[in-house]
Amino acid sequence: MKFTFMGFLQSKAIEMNLDDKDLSILRYFIDFKDSGKMVMKIINDKPFYWLKSDALIEELPILGIKSKDVLRRRLKKLVEANVLEFELIKKGGVYTFYGVGKSYIDLIADDTQKHPTQKSEPTDRKVGTLPTQKSEQNINLLKEPSIKYINSVCREVIDFLNLKANTKYKSDSKATVSLISGRINDGFTVDDMKIVINNKYEEWKGTSYEKYLRPSTLFRQSKFEEYLNQKISKEEEVNKNKSGTYKPFNFDD
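Predicted structure:
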C-alpha cells in the first residue's frame, strides 16, 4: 500500500474515517492558505482563513460536489476529526473561517517522528554489543521522516514570509533551518510562526524596522515568544474582488 495520498498518511486518514474527497478538500485548503492569497483573521491568537464554498466547488469539479450543503458536510467531518477548526463570523454578512486543528499533525507525521524512542530494542540483543550495519540503517531511517518534516515546515514558513514581506529568503539555508527547527523543538507550531510574521509585519511595514522582517530576527529564541503574544493594534486583511485583485477590509470596524 502507498503510505501517503496527496501528502497525507493513509493509515491515519482511515483511522479518522476520512476518504479521498475529504483529503482533496483538505489539500486544497492547506495549499491555498499557504499561498498567502486567502483572507486571514487572527481569532483567539490563531490564524483562521476565509473559505469560500463557491470557489472550492468550482476549483475541484473532479469531486462531483454540486452543492454547498454537501461541501459543508465534508468540512464538518474534518472539523469533527480535529483536523480543522471552524469559526463563523457574522458581521456585514456571514463568513466561514477555518484553521488547522490539533490532529492535522497526525496526518503528516508518522509515529516514529512523534515518538522516535518508542520502539523497543530486540530482547535478545546482548548488553555492550555494537550496533550492526542493519541497525544503523534503521536508526537513519527513523531520523529521515523528522528531517523531511522540518524541511517541509521551513518551506511553508519561509514561503509565507516571502509572500507577506516581498522578500526572497531561502528555506534551506543552514541558519534558517536551525532557527525554525529550534522553535519546533521548543513546542511551537507553523501557525505560531505565521502569527509572528503577521504581527511584526503589521508593526514594522513602512518603517525603518521593516528591514528586520527576516528569519534571524523573527525566529530567534530570545524574542520569539514575546513576538507571538504581541497584540497588534491594527489588523489589515484582504478581500478578493471580482477582478482578481485585493483590497483592504476589516471585520472589526
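Summary: The chain has two domains: 1-108, 109-114+135-234.
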